[in-house]
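Q: My labmate handed me this sequence with no annotations at all. I'd like to see what the chain might look like in three dimensions before we decide whether it's worth expressing. Could you predict it?
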Amino acid sequence: MKYIGYLLFILIQCTWGLGQTLLGLVLFCIHRASPHTFYKGCVHTEWKMDGGISLGLFIFTPEGGGNSEWNSRLTVHEYGHAWQSLLLGPFYIIPGLASLCWSRMNYFQRMRREKNIPYSDFWTERWANWWGEKLTGRPSI
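A: Here is what I predict for the chain of 141 residues:
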């Protein structure tokens, strides 16, 4: 039964979530030499970047951390974003861009550091953590 669920997940990501899945495919092709595994219907790539991202069917987390607690939690978090993509389809661009700004813009990085605000306090990240933990039964970031 779980394989039927994975097939439905993939089918929906390749139709309703086509935009972000295509972007994920481009990143996957760019990082094709990196290690890849399957994670609950997603293609999980460990890349040389320092952060994670989820685009449709594709999850990217830092290379070499496959056995670390942090990378395990980050994978659960990114899987939560994959479910946001599944639910929102083309509208995932809204939380996707908000999340990207929250994680990468100097202004927000400085604000989090100076005011001691956890990364997961932002609504998109809290929501991704919730989905990831609910669906995997594992802790997120």
